[in-house]
Specification:
Blueprint lengths: L12 H14 L5 E4 L6 H4 L4 H4 L8 E5 L5 E5 L3 H8 L1 E2 L5 E4 L10
Parallel strand pairs: 1-5
Antiparallel strand pairs: 2-3, 4-5
Length: 109
């Protein structure tokens, strides 16, 4: 099962995501929560420390590749399992959190 939560700023996406992931994990469902927000706070909402919130995946986990027809796409540079093992953080109720590549400063996104 894959669930994506989106919406305008301030609509409660992070709170809903954190609550939903913990409910599913408490029911024994393995949960991988990926925070793709440029200002990520899901790890904080799941009870991890502020320093854990800064542990984002590096941009090197994806790269732009061009196929024979000239079409470009973004691809992972490692297996999903290795990325989760290396960058995933364990949160409450067994939820694993991955924080996407953060924007470090203006103009860097």
């Amino acid at each position: 099962m894959k669930i994506a939560i989106s919406g305008k700023g301030g609509s409660g996406k992070t709170t809903i995501s954190a609550t939903l992931t913990r409910i599913l994990a408490r029911r024994g469902i393995p949960v991988l929560a990926i925070d793709g927000d440029p200002n990520p706070n899901l790890s904080l909402a799941l009870g991890l420390s502020d320093s854990a919130n800064t542990a984002a995946m590096p941009r090197s986990v994806v790269e732009r590749r061009e196929d024979e027809s000239g079409k470009t796409s973004m691809v992972l540079t490692d297996s999903i399992e290795n990325i989760i093992e290396r960058y995933g953080l364990k949160a409450a109720d067994g939820v694993t959190v991955l924080t996407g590549c953060r924007v470090e400063h203006s103009g860097a996104g």
